[in-house]
Specification:
Elements (H helix, E strand, L loop, with lengths): L1 H33 L10 H8 L4 H7 L4 H7 L2 H9 L9 E7 L2 E6 L6 H13 L3 E7 L8 E4 L2 E6 L2 E7 L5 E3 L12 E7 L2 E6 L4 E5 L5 E5 L7 E7 L2 E6 L3 E6 L6 H4 E6 L4 E6 L5 E6 L8 E5 L5 E5 L9 E8 L2 E6 L3 E6 L4 E7 L6 E6 L4 E6 L4 E6 L7 E4 L10 E4 L3 E6 L2 E6 L2
Antiparallel strand pairs: 1-2, 3-30, 4-5, 5-6, 6-7, 8-9, 9-10, 10-11, 12-13, 13-14, 14-15, 16-17, 17-18, 18-19, 20-21, 21-22, 22-23, 24-25, 25-26, 26-27, 28-29, 29-30
Helix pairs in contact: 5-6
Length: 433
Amino acid sequence: MNTTNSKVQTQTQENNLSRNFQVSQKQKQSQDKKMPSFTITNLPDDILYHIFSFLDVKSLCRICQVCRFFKYLSNKDCVWLQHLNSRPVLIESALSYSEFKYGGYIHRRTSSSFDRKTQYKASLNWSNGAFRETSQVSHGTRLMPWIQKVESNLWMSTKNIIRCFCVQKNGNLRERKNRQLYGLNDDVSRFIIKDDVTVGACRDGSVCGWKNESCDMMFKYDELHDSEVHCVDFYDQTMVSGSRDKTVKVVSMKPERDATDLLKKTIYMGDRVWSIKLSPCGSLLATGTAGNKGLPALTTWDLKTGEMLSTLDPDHQAGAGILDIKFETPHTLLTCGYDTNLSMWDLRTDTCVARWTEPFDSTVYCFQTDGNYSIVTGTARYGMTRLWDKRKTISIQQYYSGRNRSSPVYSLVFDPGRLYVALDIGIHKLDFT
């Protein structure tokens, strides 16, 4: 009996101990549930941003795979900005145009939908020459199209029409047929867009202006020149045009009267005028001619008086004409042309302060700058474009487009991730994203 009772007591004690242990475990679990667990995700965002700032690019890419929260934080611009600034190639959005306003100089930069991480990836591809080429617009006959990008729209000349294309999120172009500009009788040679106004030059010597939103014609000056108009520009209500007839004409854009009464002055250049550009304040005029017969290829003029202010590059080779001109600042002028050079001029000293030479000895038809350090030039052979850094004399990379067609690049526009080139067969997109 005693043995049996002791066994029962022992079993009872073991059961009580087990029951007490289970109760204590449940109490401990309930207490653990009540007390919040601390992880690295509980840190404030500012602390995590500071931690991420010590990571290299490879580690940041791995952090993106940890969880959605880390992916969200590591994709922020503040994390990638320091890595982007360390890149030798940093493509900014291209400048649309510049102006004086309230006594200060303002750059108007086209909007960009690229975050800093995407820009970093694209900068690697710009440097390495890695891109995907697609044909966006094509036409049956060979033309000399001109393109210009304004915000999310890309405008292109096709024969005697200026067409509008919407740039979608993936960079593809979708034509907006309700925003085409008509009215010219011959092919459009050049056009320019500012402040919702488009002015186009025609090969028959006429010039026309439209309102972009309504596509209504503002004015049309027939036979303004005796032959083909190569270039046009305007500021406020004053328009200038250069032609094959060796003249530059300054005309008012007010549509009340005919062109003969609106003609302010005519500047006789003595040679074909290939390019023309007004300064951001509208007081200075830069003209580029064919450079023949010992005449200067690049000159600046006072727009009000019509007097020549300076002759740039007086020792140029015969025929080294200027095909494209752009003002980057009120005192800085960029030019390119038949001399196979891209040149930067300081108008305060009338000297060339920088020059980048095309290594293949090819004519430079056009160029575009982002207003920072990057410049892209379009050449006369095989649809080749070239990326330059203003701080270096050697080009960074070259790109071929057009599927080995021997077409010049007549004009181009770019943003941080894509490059659009206008060839004789249409528009091609080079996607670096």
